[in-house]
Amino acid sequence: MSSANNKGRMSRRKKMEPWYYVGPIFLLLVIMFGYPLIKSVVMAFQNYKLGNANVYFNDFANFHKMFGDKDFLLLLKNSVVYVVVSVFGQFIGGLILALCLRDKFKGRGIYQSIVFLPWAFSAFVVGLVFRWSFNGEYGVVNDVLMKLGIIKKGIAWLGTPGLSLVVVILAMIWIGIPFFGIMILAALQSIPDEIYEAADMDGCGMFRKFFSLTLPYIKPTVIMTILLRTIWIFNSFDLVVIVTQGGPANYSQTLPSYMYTKAFSGYDFGLAGAFGVLLMVILGVYAVLFLKLSNYDKAGDF
């Protein structure tokens, strides 16, 4: 009987053992992320302004104010354009980079460390570089374009509606290409060489091998990388704030950067919380639909 009890206790202890490792991390995540998340949702339904001691629940007043903002549709359009163009540019650049680095060549390690360097830079540094480079008066971009004879006078990149968002998108593409390159390169290196040898024997050309062999093999990695980068870019506000500060007249402002402005410039945390809830809903719906439409659960099946 005693032996059976000991075996039962050992079995329960073995089942609980993973929780000894996961438990502290789970508790840390709840404290560091769970509480702020719940607090932001609660603030979305409150009149919560810094300096105003009278905090109270105002139902959906913050959401009415958010959707009634005259620039809301502009912010939504900017966010969609910013995310779609940035992710597409990063994917194309990262794919080309990974394909170039797949084959061994002299100095590949050095070249690889250099081209992956932008991923190591902070967004603050990258934002400052692009802000000064595209300065309308003494930026290096205008100087180079005028010397090449492409333009006759400097362009106010950061002060022109439409162009200001382009500068932010270029900065985001530049900083994100290495991430796509690293992920796709890792997927490419996992493809067996025998498959390509068999394709060569069957007379498959370069494009046929890419679309029939390479792309299906790296599809799971591509889907997950696009999903992650879309979420990260959609939530990011630092480049917008640093490069253009949302100007001119909110033409480069996105939903996250506008939320940041309302929280830390207007000190309206209730309205900022409403924007945060909207972002969570949009990204949650996007993640579900994207994984379903891309058939992620079937990706990699041959």
UniProtKB/TrEMBL annotation:
Cellular compartments per GO CC: plasma membrane
Topology with regard to the membrane?
A: Multi-pass membrane protein
Q: Where in the cell is it found?
A: Cell membrane
Q: Which UniProt keywords apply?
A: Cell membrane, Membrane, Transmembrane, Transmembrane helix, Transport
The residue ranges of the ABC transmembrane type-1 domain are 76-290
Is Transmembrane helix a UniProt keyword of this protein?
yes
| Residues that span the membrane, as ranges | 20-38, 80-101, 113-134, 154-187, 269-291
Q: Does the keyword Membrane apply?
A: yes
Organism domain of life: Bacteria
One Pfam family in the UniProt entry? BPD_transp_1
Q: Which GO terms describe its biological process?
A: transmembrane transport
In terms of SUPFAM superfamilies, this protein maps to: MalF N-terminal region-like, MetI-like
Similarity-based family: Belongs to the binding-protein-dependent transport system permease family.
Protein name, please? Lactose transport system permease protein LacF
